[in-house]
Amino acid sequence: MEADPNPMVVLHACLGVGHLIPMVELAKLLLRRGLAVVIAVPTPPASTADFFSSSAPAVDRMAAANPSISFHHLPPPEYPDPDPDAFLQMLDTMRLTVPPLLAFLRSLPSVAALVLDLFCVDALDAATAAGVPAYFYYTSSAGDLAAFLHLPHHFATTEGSLKDMGKTPLRFPGVPPIPASDMPHTVLDRADRTCATRLGHYGRIPEARGILINSYEWLEARSVRALREGACIPDRPTPPVYCIGPLMAKGEEAANGERHACLSWLDAQPERSVVFLCFGSLGAVSVKQLKEIARGLENSGHRFLWVVRSPPQDPAKFFLPRPEPDLGMLLPEGFTERTRDRGMVVTSWAPQVEVLRHAATAAFVTHCGWNSVLEAASAGVPMLCWPQYAEQRMNKVLLVDGMQLGVVMDGYDEELVKAEEVEKKVRLVMEFEEGKKLRDRLTMAKEMAAKALADGGSSSLAFTEFLKDLNFGNTTKEKA
Ligand code: UDP
């Protein structure tokens, strides 16, 4: 079959900064290979507008920073009786957006493929109805995907719920044993609608023509092998898997030309001397926990750059934009003055990519969101893993027990991580042999990330394979 001269790839994103960033990077990659791309984004239904009020500005910011990429805002669906659960609201929104997505696909002269975020599984129906091949783009780790693809089989062959299994290790092909308590809350309770919905989603992934993963083979060789060998889905063929990462934003500095004050502060610090703490686009901790972190950092004696966000007032409002934190109220009395010569606290947001790549940054206290992991791995920065929500606890297991790129902050699954633990782990990574071993391993991870993306590297080749599958194998030359 001859390729259409103007192939259009439609990327269907879900809401959430951590999902949008890698989708935008994929769009850039497709554009560089000469394909026309549009990112179709959902618009929250009027009944959930408050809830998703932080998402629209995020899309607008990304659209403004990437003028070469077209964003198409799908019309908001009707959702008269929103589920009280935030996550289900989001999944319901994505499901209800299938008809407008189908109308959009039908309005385009020719669509080469529909690439779906994993939260947009229901959109497989739109692809089928429009006669368009569907691919998934998984924006977290291959290891998580291996486990999730195996979950429907696990549930079909076992009884009870993961929530009742404590730390019992679960064995999934291609990943280290994962304690049941480290699985995402969305799959802990078999009787829950969220769990049934997610299992239904995982069970439909094999319907896609292929799965792109934002990872690189060296980092997750074992998981990728298990996926390719079909070990994760025992009863059906696994679609071809393309590891095309790490795809990461270049950073804000590159986008708008302004330099954040924390980067100038880092310029003045010695090489590899600063511990960076940041919990993703949404993560935040309680007031009590903030004080405990402050004490741990102060007692460690090390330099630090810390992104502090206002604690969530109400767990049900987790996704809502939060006010700027009042550091005077949140941090221990005198902390800022006492640590003035070796610490900087940034409120709400820091240019993480640039911070991680800065020569002064030595370690990263992270919530283990996958973008953060890839950014740290590609910058060669060891991680102190403090998972908070979603699949971050699974990523922690992969990072510590599998990839050996980090250590765990004990107490992440209890009410409080103690100041003594913060101090101990900071010292461990900054002062001891274990830290040196981690740094050596991270140096390798950084080199291998660059190699994977370079011409002839595993991710570059995988992307070319994907284009061939789209019947655009000859569009492999990057445009300048
Ligand atoms: N990020 C940032 N500055 C911040 C917090 C987050 O630049 O202060 C970026 C970070 O670099 C990453 C993304 O936001 O690219 C967060 O994605 P991740 O998958 O790590 O976590 P999520 O926010 O999805 O939980």
Automatic annotation (TrEMBL):
What protein family does this chain belong to? Belongs to the UDP-glycosyltransferase family.
Protein's recorded name: Glycosyltransferase
PANTHER family found in the cross-reference section: GLYCOSYLTRANSFERASE
Q: Give the UniProt keywords, A-Z.
A: Glycosyltransferase, Transferase
Gene Ontology molecular function: glycosyltransferase activity; UDP-glucosyltransferase activity
Its Enzyme Commission number?
A: 2.4.1.-
Q: Which InterPro entries match?
A: UDP-glycosyltransf_plant, UDP_glucos_trans, UDP_glycos_trans_CS
The membrane-spanning stretches of this chain are: none
